[in-house]
Amino acid sequence: MKSVFQNEKYRVMKQRLKLSLFTFFKWVACSCFAGVVIGFIGTIFHILLEYVTEFRQTYWWMLFLLPIAGILITAIYHAAHAAKSRGTNLVITAIQSNEEVPGKMAPLIMISTLLTHACGGSAGREGAALQIGGSIGNALAKFFDFDEKDTRILIMCGMSACFGALFGTPIAAAVFSMEVISVGIMYYAALVPCTISALIGSGISSIFGISATHFDIGIIPSFSLGNAAKMIFMSALFALASILLCITLHNVHALYCKHLENQYLRAVVAGIFVIVLRFLCGSSDYLGAGTDIIAKSFVTQSIWYAFLLKIIFTAITLGGGFKGGEIVPTLFVGATLGSFLGPVLGLPTGLCAACGMVTVFCGVTNCPLTSLILSVEMFGGESIKFCMLCIAIGYLLSGYYSLYNSQKIIYSKYKTEYVNKKTH
């Protein structure tokens, strides 16, 4: 009887080992393939974005073509029967359920984002990366004839690869795809494919000379009780800024839809608003992604209203139907607000800009682990205590707001309980 039991136990262990090895080799192969394909596409997209941004900065009159770009973007989506596309929200929903991310989403978001940036629309690029990666990942899953559960993993894998290629932070890219879908839980089944694809995607972009996103913080003071108290106060303001950003983006879009039902007219009006605002404020700092202004905020103190203007420009752009992403504008908001608050509170400008970036990012995405990893990849490990404190406070105080309406809060931020509710 004992030998029979031992044989059965050995047989079960052997089956489990075979399953583990099969799963391992399957996902290593698939994630390598996805990482190469999507990493290469993401790299090309990154190069094109840099080119059109440089072109727009050289030829200032490109801004006046923004309404025409809006018409073209609307026409392209109508022609592709994707006028009601939900963008990144669709990618998140596809992982939560059995919805499909159409293959046409990748070329649509690439072309429309390039048009938006070429003409000065205030938008980012990482939101586009998530849609490109998710779309291609879904297409690859169909090619490999995966079931719905493996398809979800490959979608996350694609998101990580494209995010890593565009931003150069592969570890944060891998974790973000697993963390952003449902707040309070992690999709650890995707850990191996997301990690491998993100590293490969980032590696491919580096081969083409695209440098990783990195900022020099400069002076880092001692982590004292007084400095910690200042950081806690500042974190509360960062949380409020993240809430304001989410509310503004959602409400401006709702206002457009309510008062301008025609999508072509909506895009034209949005383009005109951006042009008028640019000349009213007398600066081009709030056009495009604003990465150069983010870099400046680490060196010199930003004006107090810079973060507010970026929120307004981005809400008008994206709410009117232009395409891109919200993450770089989010980093802009956090960096400029932190850059202003630092000298006011007697803290280094660079450190406060860094803490503002990752805290506002955490507040609008509800991804504290990704935010912490992002801080290490972008700033180094010396500031981790300050960043972690700010991220933790920002995560708690930002409530259930999010850039993505499809994101779900599975476990409460305030109690150890299951809530399963959508974000605001």
Could you characterize what this model shows?
This protein is mainly α. It has helices spanning 2-58, 66-79, 88-96, 105-118, 126-143, 148-167, 170-179, 191-207, 225-259, 263-281, 291-297, 306-319, 327-344, 349-365, 368-379, 384-397; strands at 182-183, 408-411, 418-422. The chain has a three-stranded mixed sheet with strand order 1-2-3, with no helix packed on it. A hairpin with a 6-residue loop joins strand 2 (408-411) and strand 3 (418-422). The longest helix has 57 residues, at 2-58. The model has no long low-confidence stretch (mean pLDDT 93).
User: What is the string of helix and strand elements?
Assistant: HHHHHHHEHHHHHHHHHEE
Count of strand segments? 3
Structural class: mainly alpha
- Give a quick account of the main beta sheet: strands, pairing sense, barrel closure: 3 strands, mixed
Which regions are unreliable across 5 or more consecutive residues at pLDDT < 50? none
For the termini, the CA-CA separation is 60 Å
| Net shape | globular
Strand content: under 5%
Number of helices: 16
Helix content class: 55-70%
| Rg of Cα set | 22 Å
Q: Record the strand order, biggest sheet.
A: 1-2-3
Mean pLDDT across all amino acids = 93
